[in-house]
Structure formats: structure tokens, C-alpha cells
Specification:
With 459 residues, this protein is of the alpha+beta class. The protein contains 19 helices and 17 strands.
Length: 459
């Protein structure tokens, strides 16, 4: 009987060696930038107590949390009537844990649990997978990696300015040049809701506005009407809704003046102005920055500036985003610990590099040179030679069995190993080796020291 072909869940992916080379390059690039700004590493468990995660991401976010069934007979405490009370009460009886939805809420939990042992401001970065029960599509996965950097314990807007710098530095080092960084402020959104006639309903408005990067305004407008927003509200909101504005242009001032009657909005515009002022010495950074009144970032815990990095001219959506959350720890009973942070989506960065044709440049071999297996009687000598190469900082490998040279050379070429060493009877007697560069076909007999010097020049 034929066995079924194995598969993996939709929204997840395997990554082969070539892909992992690229992903590891992305990880190391981001890590080097984070550490250059003084951030320290942190890891938290893949699963959290369900009570830690629920209520932090809004109703839509809560529905995307992957719940973990209790061990054993998870239905033992469930009554027939529980199935009639809706999924929320039932979930609490059959699931106590869940896979983490993001890295920010676990950070808040960690800070609350360890606040007496931490030095504030606490600067941490975290690079781990997260899970969301979303509908898979291009650039949207159910399992994906995030690379977060957060500063907890300060309200200084200098942190926002440095975050924007880090975004641009990572992009520069990855060779990504065509992108913009959208910025807005949750207080501006609060003032906007009040200005348009629905004070206190900015959270509902933001959930709908946050979809404008995926769907057109009429769809968002219809959703707002379904949420109970009036026609007058959506008309006024649409009139104020603008395109992307330069952060150094006069249009933002005009918009701020139009909404100056709302204290929240006025405060938000002032804070954004301060961030721009901090970055005045970085014109290349300001050139990428755009104010976007429709940027909302639907997660409910944001309280201040919010931002999002969006590549241009490609199918991949935003690859980085974040904002200020000055009240997140209060949901765990501890007030007065403000924070701000952002996150890169590794999977979307990989997709972006693939789309713009940079992946092949990064799919380099782990080894710089392959030592062919010429004669199994000389394996001890081969291993000694490899050890000398590795001591010199040259990655190398030995073909593990005797085979025709053509096959071994073909293996090196397939693996993108740029050089091959042949150590046969003649070379052993002469105390030399033969080094062949596969790209050019150039072949030369030389000493080990000469080979090391030449191989060290390879990128």
C-alpha cells in the first residue's frame, strides 16, 4: 500500500541550506545593527499562558491566537451546555496556553516579572518565531520570525528617532534602497475620531483604517458603517484623509492647524515634530520618512508614535513596523513603565530580496574550498591539511568517498564552492598541492602557505 506523501501546514515553509544562508545573513545584519545601538538579547518561551496574550491585540487579533489544547482528556471538565455558550467560555475550559502572537506582549510580561532586577531604560532585542492563525497569502504566513528591538522605561522621543535610524541602517546593509517609512501618532488618530464626530472610538476606527494598505477606501468605508459610524463621520474622515506627506513639508502644518481644536491631535503633531527635529542631521533618513494619516497599526496597545517601513514597486507589503506603548505593562497590574519598539519580519525581507533579485548573490557556499578524495589511503593526511586550512580561517570540506574527479568537481560547482584542492601522489611527494579555481578554470601547483594566502582573498 502506497503511503501518503508528507506535507506541511499551509502558511509554513521549509528552508533549505541555500535559503538558510540568506536568512542567516539577514539575521546577522539585523543583530549587528541592534547591538551597535546597545540592545541586549532576550528569549522567551514559544508558548505563553493564554491569559497573558488575550485582550492585548483587539478582538480580531485575539481570534488569530493559536490556542494549545490542555494535555490529556481536555474535555473532562466540559458540560454539554458549555458548547452553547460560545467559543470564548469554552476555550477557557479546554486551553490554558497558546503560541505567542508577537514578541511585545511577552516582553511586557518579562519586564513585569523581572522589574526589580532590571536596569531601566531596558534595551532588549529578540529574534524568534511567532504564530498567527491567519489566512495564508503572498507575504502572509502562519509561522514567521520577528526581530524586535524595544526600549522600556523611558518616554523620551530620542528612542523613536533611533528606531528610525536603525530601520534605514538595516536596509542600507541589506542593499534595499527603494522604500519609505510611514509615520503617524495614535493621539492624532484619537483627535481625528473626535474631530470627525466619534470621540472615544479611535480604536474601532483604527482597525478599519489599518486595512487601507490592502483594500480601497469604499471597502473601509462600508466596514465603518457596519461598525456604526455615521455617513457624516466617514465623509469628514475621507476629506481629511491625505496622501503621503513629506515630514519636512508645509502640508502637515496645515493639517495640524485644521485639527488644533483637539488637544490629543495637537499633542501628537508636536511629538512628531520633535522626532523630525532630532533627525535633522540625517537628511538621508528624513528623505525616507512620510506622514500618513491613515496609518493606524490596529494593535490596541499603541499609545504614541507609530511607524511602518514599506518597500516600493514590489508585491511585498510592509516589512517592519512598531510604535510606542506607554501602558502595556498596566494590563499586568504594573503602571508607569513606558516603552517603544519595532519589529522586522524576516520572512517578508527574504521575499523582498528574492523579488528584487538579490537572493542569488547571498546564496554562497559554506565552504571556500573542496578537497577531493583522490586516494582513501591518504585520508589522515587530508584531514591534517583541512585542519591547517581551518586554523587559517578558511572554511573547507572533504569529499567523503572516492569518485571520478569530474563528479567531485561537479559537486563543488553545484554547491557553489569556488575552489578545489587536489592532493595526489605527485603533490604529496613534492610537498605541494594543486589549487583550481572553478570559475576561471585556472589551475596552479603551489605550497599550502601559498594556497592559504590565495584562498583568504576569496569573498
Amino acid at each position: 500500500m502506497a503511503k501518503d506523501t508528507p506535507g506541511i501546514p499551509r502558511g509554513t515553509r521549509d528552508f533549505g541550506p541555500a535559503q538558510m544562508k540568506v536568512r542567516n545573513h539577514i539575521f546577522s545584519t539585523i543583530r549587528s545593527v541592534f547591538e551597535s545601538f546597545g540592545f541586549m538579547p532576550l528569549e522567551t518561551p514559544a508558548m505563553e499562558n493564554l491569559s497573558v496574550l488575550t485582550g492585548k491585540y483587539g478582538d480580531e487579533g485575539d481570534q488569530l491566537i493559536y490556542k494549545i489544547l490542555n494535555s490529556g482528556d481536555f474535555l473532562s471538565g466540559v458540560q454539554a451546555s458549555d458548547f452553547e455558550s460560545g467559543y470564548k467560555p469554552l476555550t477557557r475550559k479546554i486551553s490554558e496556553k497558546a503560541l505567542r502572537y508577537d514578541l511585545t506582549v511577552p516582553l511586557a510580561r518579562y519586564v513585569v516579572m523581572n522589574r526589580h532586577n532590571l536596569s531601566f531604560p531596558f534595551r532588549r532585542y529578540q529574534m524568534q518565531p511567532v504564530w498567527r492563525a491567519d489566512r495564508p497569502s503572498f507575504g502572509r504566513y502562519r509561522e514567521f520570525w520577528q526581530c524586535d528591538a524595544d526600549v522600556v522605561g523611558t518616554r523620551s522621543l530620542v528612542c523613536e528617532a533611533e528606531i528610525i535610524q536603525m530601520m534605514t541602517m538595516v536596509m542600507d546593509r541589506l542593499g534595499i534602497t527603494d522604500y519609505i517609512i510611514k509615520i503617524n501618532h495614535r493621539k492624532i488618530l484619537s483627535g481625528l475620531a473626535a474631530f470627525c464626530g466619534a470621540p472615544g472610538r479611535e480604536a474601532e476606527m483604527s482597525v478599519s483604517l489599518d486595512k487601507l494598505d490592502k483594500v480601497e477606501w469604499p471597502i473601509v468605508e462600508t466596514e465603518m458603517h457596519n461598525r456604526g459610524f455615521s455617513e457624516a463621520f466617514t465623509q469628514k474622515l475621507n476629506q481629511l484623509r491625505t496622501g503621503l506627506l513629506s515630514v519636512t513639508g508645509p502640508e502637515i502644518t496645515e493639517l495640524a492647524n485644521a485639527m488644533q481644536s483637539e488637544p490629543d491631535a495637537a499633542n501628537g503633531f508636536t511629538e512628531l515634530s520633535n522626532i523630525v527635529a532630532y533627525l535633522k542631521g540625517f537628511p538621508d533618513v528624513l528623505e525616507k520618512l512620510r506622514f500618513d494619516l491613515s496609518l493606524a497599526r490596529g494593535l490596541s496597545y499603541y499609545t504614541g508614535p507609530i511607524f511602518e517601513l514599506v518597500p516600493q514597486g514590489v508585491k511585498v507589503g510592509s516589512i517592519c513596523g512598531g510604535g510606542r506603548y506607554d501602558e502595556l505593562t498596566s494590563v499586568f497590574g504594573v503602571d508607569g513603565i513606558p516603552g517603544v519598539g519595532f519589529s522586522f519580519g524576516i520572512d517578508r525581507i527574504y521575499d523582498l530580496l528574492s523579488e528584487i533579485g538579490k537572493v542569488q548573490d547571498l546564496e554562497t557556499a559554506s565552504a571556500k574550498v573542496l578537497l577531493v578524495m583522490f586516494d582513501e589511503n591518504h585520508i589522515a593526511r587530508y584531514l591534517e591539511l583541512l585542519s591547517r586550512l581551518r586554523e587559517a580561517g578558511i572554511s573547507c570540506e572533504l569529499y567523503p568517498e572516492t569518485a571520478k574527479l569530474k563528479k567531485q568537481f561537479s559537486y563543488a560547482d553545484t554547491r557553489k564552492i569556488p575552489a578545489v584542492i587536489v592532493l595526489g601522489e605527485d603533490e604529496i611527494k613534492a610537498g605541494t598541492l594543486t589549487l583550481k579555481m572553478l570559475a576561471s578554470g585556472q589551475q596552479e601547483t603551489m605550497t599550502l602557505e601559498q594556497a592559504i594566502a590565495k584562498l583568504q582573498l576569496l569573498h
